[in-house]
Amino acid sequence: MATRQSIQYSVVVPAYRENGNLRPLVTRIFAALRRVDSPVPAEQTEVIIVDDNSRDGSVETVRQLQQEGFNVRIIVRTTERGLSSAVVRGFQEAQGDNMLCMDADLQHPPEYVPSMLASMSPTHTFVLGTRYGKGVEMDKDWPVHRRIISSGARLLALPLTTASDPMSGFFGIRKEAFLKARGLNADGFKIALDLLIKAHVAPNAIAEVPFSFGVRAEGESKLTGKVMIKYLEQLAELYWYKFSSLVVVLAIIFVVLLFLLLRTWFGAVSPDAKQRY
Ligand SMILES: Nc1nc2c(ncn2[C@@H]2O[C@H](COP(=O)(O)OP(=O)(O)O[C@H]3O[C@H](CO)[C@@H](O)[C@H](O)[C@@H]3O)[C@@H](O)[C@H]2O)c(=O)[nH]1
Ligand SMILES: [Mg+2]
């Protein structure tokens, strides 16, 4: 097994009740990394599952995978819940300088992991798996209502970032960029968007990798109406985060202009007023 120092790449997987998906996920990730043309060595890569006390056999599956020689470990949280906070926890625990986040349910193809990891560098501190790139399409079985919600959510984020798919759950960030982010909103599902803004990732520091978003292999989605409301709250916070200084500057300009206008107006009126009395 790889030594602690040799780990350069960490794959963080938030997971809740995903036992059935963990074995195919981990074995496919390492199979992709062991290919001769992989740009990233399997020995320098670890997989971290962040599970919220699913108690569905996930711990036993990971233990079995470890015995088979896979560099995978599982963090079981018992007091916290939620996708974004699980990702943040995984990034905090990661040993690699290049950290990738992906879903457990195989909607993010494990075969893309090597190229996603290799796309990160000191100049490209963020890699984004995008469903809106050239030549890719959402899986044809993806429900229409999810496509509509996804497009609406993307539209609302347009003023915040130039990234083509900031809603994506398939993304990576370099450790040094992650450490710059302050006050992350770890509620909800859209941690990539929060990181893009709060780690101050410049547009030219984002590498985009188009991929086709598949359908869930097993189990069910945890994206509920509550998650969508949380997204709107997160957007409001990010708009304020990004534009509040602009609002303050505009308010100051407005007050100064108003003051000058009133002074000119009263200055012009008062001599007449004196003459009349
Ligand atoms: N630890 C933990 N993991 C969670 C939780 N909720 C969800 N997850 C894990 O997060 C991953 C994504 O959850 P899904 O429930 O499969 O989400 P989705 O509807 O497929 O949404 C995905 O696609 C969206 C784009 O349409 C993304 O915006 C979203 O982040 C996610 O990647 C899965 O591995 C799931 O087990 C939680 O409360 N805790
Ligand atoms: Mg899913």
Automatic annotation (TrEMBL):
Gene3D superfamilies: Spore Coat Polysaccharide Biosynthesis Protein SpsA, Chain A (3.90.550.10). Its cofactor is Mn(2+); Mg(2+); Ca(2+). One of its GO terms (molecular function) is dolichyl-phosphate beta-D-mannosyltransferase activity. It is an enzyme of class 2 (transferase). Its EC number is 2.4.1.83. GO terms for cellular component: endoplasmic reticulum membrane. InterPro entries: DPM1-like, Glyco_trans_2-like, Nucleotide-diphossugar_trans. Residues 10-178 form the Glycosyltransferase 2-like domain. Its main location: membrane. Pathway: Protein modification; protein glycosylation. GO terms for biological process: dolichol-linked oligosaccharide biosynthetic process; GPI anchor biosynthetic process; protein O-linked glycosylation via mannose. Keywords: Endoplasmic reticulum, Glycosyltransferase, Magnesium, Manganese, Membrane, Metal-binding, Transferase, Transmembrane, Transmembrane helix. This is Dolichol-phosphate mannosyltransferase subunit 1. Pfam families: Glycos_transf_2 (PF00535). The keyword Manganese applies. Transfers mannose from GDP-mannose to dolichol monophosphate to form dolichol phosphate mannose (Dol-P-Man) which is the mannosyl donor in pathways leading to N-glycosylation, glycosyl phosphatidylinositol membrane anchoring, and O-mannosylation of proteins. Belongs to the glycosyltransferase 2 family. It catalyses: a di-trans,poly-cis-dolichyl phosphate + GDP-alpha-D-mannose = a di-trans,poly-cis-dolichyl beta-D-mannosyl phosphate + GDP. It is found in: Endomembrane system; Endoplasmic reticulum. Component of the dolichol-phosphate mannose (DPM) synthase complex. The chain crosses the membrane at residues 238-262.
